[in-house]
Each structure stands twice: as C-alpha cells, then as structure tokens.
Amino acid sequence: MSTKFYITTPIYYVNDVPHIGHAYTTIAADVMARYHRLKGDPVFFLTGTDEHGQKVEKAARERGRTPKEHADLLSVNFRKLWEKLEITHDAFIRTTDMEHIAVVQELLQALFDKGEIERRTYEGWYCTPDERFWTEKEIVEGKCPDCGRPVEQIKEDNYFFLMSKYQERLIGHIQRHPDFIRPESRRNEVLGFLTTQKLGDLCISRPKARLAWGIELPFDRDFVTYVWFDALVNYYSATRYLSPAAGGSQDPGARERFWWPADHHLVGKDILTTHSVYWSTMLMALDRPLPRNIFAHGWWTRDGRKMSKSLGNVIDPNEVVDTYGADAFRYFVLREVPFGLDGDFSTETFITRFNTELANDLGNLLSRVMTMVGKYFDGKIPPAGAEEQSDRELREVAEGLPALIEADLAHLTFNKYLQDAWQLVTRANRYVEENAPWTLAKKNDMARLATVMYNLAEALRLIALHLAPVVPGTARKIWTAVGMDGFDQVRLAEERQWGRIAAGAAIKPGAQLFPRIETRKDTGRGSERMNAPDKSIRGQADKSNKGEKRMETGAAAPKIEQTTTAPELIGIEEFAKVQLRVGKIVAAERVEKSDKLVKLKVDIGTETRQVVAGIGKAYAPEQLLDKQIVIVANLKPAKLMGVESQGMLLAASSGDILSVVTPDKEIAPGSKVK
Ligand code: MSP
User: Fold this and answer.
1) N or C: which end of the chain has fewer CB within 10 A?
2) What are phi and psi for residue 166, nearest 5 degrees?
C-alpha cells in the first residue's frame, strides 16, 4: 500500500554560499525521497532558502545590495548546487514568496485572535548577530552563550508567543512518541532540558526601527516577525501552494490536508531546539498535528578541525563534485558517518573509499562482467541453467536486501543501508572468484559460464536498483549496461524479483564507472604526503569530463618511511606471539571521572572482553557501538583508573587526530589478524 511521504530540509540562510553541511542534509532527504518514489509512494520533498532577518540584511548591506537583490542572487547558488548533486526536490520555497508571507500573517493573526500572542515590555540581554534574547543567568561574562559575542542591554515592547504553557503537553508528546525526535541521544537531551528547566515565552517580533527586513505583523505594522517564526512556518505554508496536487486536486486546503503533517524534518543538531520546541508548540497552539519525526544529524569537520572561513578549510561541494562526480560525494557522506553523529571529511578517507569501494568493488565488477559477456557471448546476456549452491547463495543475498533496506531507511541509518547493499556487491565479487569464469571459458564449459554470467548481470541489476537512491547516475549506467531500459519508470515491487533480465538482452558497456584516483605514490613520483588540511580537495582532474577520465591528485597513501639506520627488527616468530583478533564493540560507556577512557565490551567470537581504551576524546561512546576493531587478545589484564582491561585495541594517531583501526569489510568477530 502506498502512503504519502513528505520530507523537508532546513531552509538555508542566503547570507552565505552552500557548503558540505547544507549538501549533507539535502542529499539525505533526496535519498529518502527517491526511495519512496521507487516504492510508488506520493512524495513531496521540500527545500529552499531562508531570506529574512538580521543576518541577511547585514550581508546585503555589506555588499551594497537590497536584501531582496541579495536573496535573489544567493538563492540561485543553492538551486545550482542541488542540480549538480542531482537533488530531486519537488519544490524550492523562498520565505520572500508572497504566498508564504500570506500564510505567516494568517497564522500570526489566528494566534493573536486566540490570545496566544501578547504584547509586553522586554528588558534584558540581546545578541544582535544571533537575533536572540538571553536571560541574565544564561549570558557568560557579558557574552552570548552561543556565539561568544558581546550582548546588549535593551528595553523595548515586543510580542510574545505564550510558549511556556505548552511545556507539559510537549513533554507528554515526546514521551508518547519515541520516534518524534531522533536519534535517541538527542531526544534525551531535549527531554532532559524540558523536564528540568522552565520554558519561557517566545519573543516573535522585532521593532521595525531596529530591523526592517521581515514579514510585517498583521496586527501591528511597527513590527516585523522574528525570523525563526517565519522560517519554521515554511514547512506548513508550502503544503498550501507548492505541494503536488492531492488526488488530482489543486485546492490549497485539500493539498494541506493531504500532505500535512510532514513525515521527516531533517535538521542539523544546532537547530533541534527551534524545531522540537518552538515549532512543536506553535503547531499545538494552532491546533495542527505535529510532524511525525524531527531528525537531528551531526556536524562535519575537516581533517579533525572545525570548518570556518577564517581557517579557509570549508569544503565546497561544487569542487568535490566537479572533480569526482556527484555520486562519489553522495555515497561518501552517507557511508562515512552514521547519520546523527559528527563526522570528519578528509581527502585521504574520501580517496580510499572511492578507490576501494566504488572503483574496485563496484566499478571492476561491472567491467569484468561486461568484458566477459562481450567476449564469450557476443554482447548478449546468456540464459541461466540449473542453479548451483553459489548461485542460490548469491540470489538469496539479493532477495534479502529489500527488507533490510526498508528497515534501514525507516530509521534513517544510511550508512547501514549502504553496508547492507554492499553485501551483494561483496557476494558477487566472491561469486566471480568461486566460479572462476575465465577457467570455465578455458575448459569450454559454456553452459556453466552462461549461468554464471546471467547471475552476475542479474546481481548487478539489483545492485543498481537498490543503490539508485544514493548513486542515481551510476545506477542508471549499470541498469543500461546489463541490457535493461526504462530506468526512470522502475518500481521496487516488480523489479526486486530475481531474474528480470531477459536472456538475449544486449549489453551496453560504457566508460569505467569510477576510474581509480591515482595518487602520487601510485604513479611512483615521490611519496611525500600531500594535501595539507587547508588545501582544496581538487586534484588535477580533467574537468571537461567530470570524473570520467583518470584523475591524479596530490593525496597520497600514508608515507612509508625508508630509514637509513635500520630500526631494531623482529622476526616473524616474535610477531606471532602477539595475538591480534577482530572484535565487535557491543557496549561502550565512559569511565567515570575520565574524559579520555572508555569502557568497551568487545565480542571476540568465543567470548566478550572488557577493554578500556583511551579514545574518549576522539569518539563518543555511541559512535563506537557496532564498530569492528582489532584487539591484542593475549595481553595481560591491567587496571586503568580502577577498571580492568582485558586487552588493548589498535588505533593510529597523528597530531590531534586519533583513528581506531577497523577491518575494511565486515568479518566474523574473533577472526585472526596477521
Ligand atoms: N535558516 C536556518 C534554518 C531554518 S529551518 C526552518 C539555518 N540555516 S543555515 O544555513 O545556517 O544552516 C542550515 C543547516 O546547515 C543546519 O541544519 C546546520 O546544522 C547545517 N550545518 C551548518 N554547518 C554544518 C556542518 N559543518 N556540518 C553539518 N551541518 C552543518 O540554520
């Protein structure tokens, strides 16, 4: 049964150009939207720009433009980037749209008429750049607790939304709806704050004398609306004038009833309070249903450091996409970091994933199959014969995927989704090894070779189907390459069945999917470590052909030092004394009174060990859960801050960066590392 699916991103301020943070949320929302379209659900995917308020007014003034001129210019940067990233939003809202302004005023008037908004004199602290009021208790040594800039003492009349009276109702709602705020840790934070502190009322106006660039209050023309009140309403106003028709009806009321409430508001962790508290209480006062879920994702750093213009280390998604292609970027950001946790972008990890997962695992699989079908079967997919055990296993992995992916995406665990989908890529590669098609060809066993080729083509077709939401361009290429057409009309329910490729279909091999990125080291031109953190990720790619040509970049694999004075060497027998085993972290918590030590429970196949590791500054405990690691399994137990450690985990460090060593692929806990 198909159910409507409405997903939103934050609307982005037009005081700046788009960066990886903006791209991240929008890619995540796009994956969800594409997946639901694949399922045949009616989808409304909304993004847009937040164009009122002090920040925009200031940015415009600094550039000698009117705020509207500035917004017009900068809003385009977002649209262009979304096009480049193959984002398939159904609508792009701008808070300067006349229709949006009308809805904001209608809601303000309704709240005012209901007595939910009151005029009061406010006296207190105000942070002008952040446009926020603070109480005496909240400010820190005369500075804004959020941005650290000086606050001003102001006294003025303003309008207040009586938010405080909804505190208990909001707590109840969050408690009764476990999925309302996700991830769990963020939900607990919001609940913790709501159950321990008294909620104030929300100042929703700014006197025009101080700020002119905003939506006028319908009941007092001397004031404009506080930018967050205006911005949050976008999710709702869009259902009236930008949403797809509801059951064929363009009527705004029918569309609102069909699409509202939203299924997911995806936001960054810094704007969770505005969404979970302001927006929810506003909706309660308006007697409108609350969104089903607000999901707060983490923040990206660059090579372990906060990104900032002054450090010059902000990642421009345009550059990454121009160099490596949209799909590689989309894949990387979702695969690298569990959605909800903070993540780090480094050129080295990007290139490693690109080369091992995209170029090797996936790209080579397709090109091998294309070459063999071309060579042995004249470019036509041959028919499959009797099913043998490895054929069945391959099919079963493919057939198990839809249920896994459905569950993964219901929880927005994108990295798990990609790991699950990769099981089929990995299984297909193993299938090639097991069946050694080149040997079958040599032995002239064409019947078995035909079966192997058919099954590989079919596995590739299903890889394309299941990866389509994340890497749409690549999925289309694979789909076409294995002789299928109609990619844009594909529906999951029909196409998830095994065996949809008709024998005899002509393959259409194309260029390499992901040409390996050659590092200086690969090309033998010196092994110096390149790419200082603040350098651009851009290599020397041929930009005339986005990612289609071989690329060369400065980022090298870690340098292998050739020392002139031989270090003390050990024999293999000495090394063999150290038992290294793969373990899986099944529980993690901080050691009391230590910011460095974490207590882990590690499953090493035969038993679960307690390991205490000094990685607490680099990893939050929840980031470690389910991680596969390598431990020294035969180390004498030792006590660290009174807690017993039965082993040691391997981690690498360089400067401030600390990275836990993990196996490249999922492997059974207890496996030997040698
Ligand atoms: N205009 C408001 C949102 C209003 S929604 C009704 C706003 N805009 S913003 O442009 O400043 O930020 C938009 C999003 O970018 C936020 O979700 C924020 O979390 C995200 N990010 C900003 N920097 C980020 C990173 N370094 N990493 C990940 N996301 C980050 O806030």
Assistant:
1) N
2) -95, 5
